[in-house]
Amino acid sequence: MQKQYFALVASGLVLACPALAQDLTTAGATLTVQPGATLYVGTGGLSNQAGGTLTNQGTLRMDVPLTNPGTLDLNSGTLEVRSDLANTGSLVPGTGSVTFSGMANQLLTPAGPRSTRSWSTSLRLGPIPCCPTEPA
Question: What gap in Å lies between CA 20 and CA 37, rounded to an integer?
């Protein structure tokens, strides 16, 4: 475990643990979630800084805000967002899927050269209400 920690620090990733929260920040580094792997960020936040590349070929589950001033490559992975997503960098869609599944309203802020331009500035998404079932 200690060897992996030093490998992450050496590649430009910074993991800060104030109190019980943790922030994962790519400091100009490349972070790849491999096929079959899951990266879960449950507290703190994830910031893919300018000059950084986050490539998702597996599952990236975000219970916290995801901020992307760098390059977010959805590749062939699954991105599950349960909080807000702010893209001020490049978004490479690939063949991956994005699911917004938060229990409260979620804010999607698209920008950058490859984002979908159909939203004016932001899109607020709320929880999906359960559909009534038809009587048998």
Answer: 24
